[in-house]
Specification:
mainly alpha
Length: 97
């Protein structure tokens, strides 16, 4: 999945990455969001084709976090929300079995 993304100029995002970008767009203009997306696509173009998910996600996340200081706070909030969501899903699964 990651090798075709890097060789065919396709960008794959997690829900956490998308949520962070949407949050960022709530207080930034479209031009800044487009600039960030262009930087992400440029990063994908220079990645070595690989099936390695870890290096792909590090490249994407690092590009986003380095783009603006606000991103680190948004990333922490999103990761916390994801953890809480997983805990809730685990509890629901245990109580409904």
């Amino acid at each position: 999945m990651y090798q075709p993304a890097t060789t065919k100029n396709v960008c794959i995002f997690t829900y956490s990455h998308l949520a962070m970008l949407i949050s960022f767009s709530m207080f930034e203009d479209n031009k800044k969001i487009e600039e960030l997306l262009h930087q992400i696509f440029k990063k994908i173009l220079v990645l070595n084709p690989s099936k390695d998910a870890f290096s792909y996600w590090i490249a994407i996340t690092t590009t986003i976090l380095e783009f603006d200081q606000k991103m680190e706070k948004l990333w922490k909030q999103e990761k916390q929300a994801a953890l809480e969501s997983m805990k809730a899903a685990k509890i629901m699964k245990m109580t409904h079995e």
